[in-house]
Amino acid sequence: MGTTLLQKVWDLHSVRALPTGQTQLFIGLHLIHEVTTPQAFDTLRARGWTVARPDRTFATVDHIVPTSQRTRPFLDVLAEDMIASLERNCRDFGVRLAGLDDERQGIVHVIGPELGLTQPGMTIACGDSHTSTHGAFGAVAFGIGTSQVRDVLASQCLAMEPLKVRRIRVTGTLPPGVYAKDVVLTIIQRLGVAGGVGYAYEYAGEVIERMSMDERMTICNMSIEGGARVGYVNPDQTTFDYIKGRPFAPAGEAFDRACAWWRSLASDPDAVYDDDVEIRAEELTPVVTWGVNPGQSIGVAEVVPSGREPGTDPAAVRDALEYMQLQPGRPIAGLKVDVAFIGSCTNSRLSDLREAARVVKGRRVAPHVKALVVPGSASVKEAAEREGLDEIFRSAGFEWRAAGCSMCLGMNPDKLSGDQVCAASSNRNFKGRQGSPTGRTLLMSPAMVAAAAVAGQVTDVREMVN
Amino acid sequence: MQAERITSVRGRALPMRGDDIDTDRIMPARFLKAVTFDGLEQHIFEDERAGSKAASHGHGIHPFDNPHYAGASVLLVNSNFGCGSSREHAPQALRRWGIRAVVGESFSEIFFGNSLMIGMPCVTATALEIRELMDRVEERPDTIIAVDLARGVCETDGYSCAVSIPAAARDAFVTGAWDTTGLLLERYGEVDAVAARLPYIKGF
């Protein structure tokens, strides 16, 4: 009987069974950022502990950084305090930091892969729920809270409970205009926002196998929105080709040895899963969320539900529609948008910007729409500028910003105001998520956001590109 | 470091109805802009509490503003509570507000783990049992609820139900092993041995 990648990686990193029955798991890479670490470092100081493995720890700044005016000190004194605190902690504890002016700076889940820090077969932890992104490489990557950040800093270990594995096979061929984002939103809609609790999601099937690393990262990134703390794809040649030549990747013969080891970690063909699900790609269309969690979505050609559909909770639908100010039965297409946001750890990589630019090229943002593109890292920004994407966006009326989490989460100057409707390539449409307590978020692919920006309303991107 | 042993929690309760209550709702992101957790309890559900106050036709008073529930130590919730962002600020705020245990239909894994790390047990019961507990507390806010981790029961005057918690988490609470850093730092030689067998640690 074969073994899954999750089990292989878990066993390799198990230190011992703790007296409580939890597993003490060694963490191969700890990524840290400014928001979820200051209290953890304070505890280290108070208890006289050091960082156990600074060589396995890497820091950057992303959540609170402004994406336009970046002069220090920041106007926001609280943000300045946080970034200064991370700089001091990294200095005092010997942790590498890609700070604000560093060419490696960016969203932590964009730069880890980009620098070659993220590799197959690692256990990875970060004080951010979207750490599942790194699973795209065949790593086992957990989002953790600040007390667990303290544990990893002090001991390079976590006390964890084992996970079951659900394989999700996406079979067939994706129709044109349907992207990785649509695939993962469909998975969440079908399995539910709590469907993955207790599971790691293994994404498989020919659609996943044909995907680029950027697309696989989009899928794994949103595992947590389906309740799965961990999501992964088995490493293959696409993975190895991506990693080769990156700053922290093994080189020369070491790279060949690494590939052999990485390959051996993939789930065995006869591996046994706790659950197995198939999604047929031919059935998929561009997806838009209409509600207040990422599972509340419909195809762009569909109408807003009423709560009377089988399997829906009428009270939850009513509550969501009231917040979103939407009438049941109205088509989602044609809904006016005020803001268009392309960015976030889900969809801010070069291929995302290319797809959005393909829609935008030669067109103009609708006059009533505020539109912005926020590259996921300084390096994505530079690469996009090298191929002229910034010019396409700027001349269409988009703002072209510096790297950060930006409008995904309302912790920096980029926020919605009032009850604005935002077409967003990010990952959460929770009430108040984008920084205004009444702001309304519609999640969709970056190409769909670009289409909405141009049309000034939710629009089927398939009608704009061919 | 030996943490406090937590075998049971007893006190008044606060019912917070709704599935999929995410941590952005519990603690809006702007309050994460601080280098300590101090004072977070003042901002629990801040935006929706303000919304409830503003809505003339609304759903009435928010449970965290209801004076009948002031001083509650048991939080009653429905399914998938604490989903979304990994921000520990959410359970930290609840605990600082006075919550010592959460009884619900189900929890997001990260919220459950964060709560374990700060000594706030999250236990589950069925939807029917949660509804019964919530109804009773809404009817009589002075109802005392006792959550017994060792016996796995939740009791109140005239009603009791079984509650579940994974065995490892239960043992961590009842033996005082929930503050894990000390535990993880013991026998560090074994950690080094694991690192030594991982090819990526030494660059392949």
Q: From the 3D coordinates, which CATH architecture of chain B would you assign?
A: Alpha-Beta Barrel
What proportion strand of chain A? 15-25%
Please report the number of helical segments of chain A: 15
Q: Which superfamily, in CATH terms, is the homologous superfamily of chain B?
A: Aconitase, domain 4
Determine the N-to-C terminus distance of chain A. Answer: 46 Å
Shape of chain A: globular
Cα-based radius of gyration of chain A, to the nearest Å: 21 Å
Going by CATH, the homologous superfamily of the largest domain in chain A would be Aconitase, domain 3
* Structural domains of chain A: how many: 3
- Roughly how much helix do the residues of chain B carry, as a percent range? 25-40%
Characterize the main sheet of chain A.
Answer: 5 strands, parallel
- How many beta-strand elements of chain B? 7
Order of helices and strands of chain B: EHHEHEHEHEEEHHH
Instruction: Name the average pLDDT of chain A.
Output: 97
What is the chains' assembly state? heterodimer
Largest interface, counted by CB within 8 Å of the partner chain's CB: A-B, 81 and 65 residues
What characterizes the major β-sheet of chain B?
7 strands, mixed
Give me the side-by-side strand order of the main sheet of chain B: 4-3-2-1-5-6-7
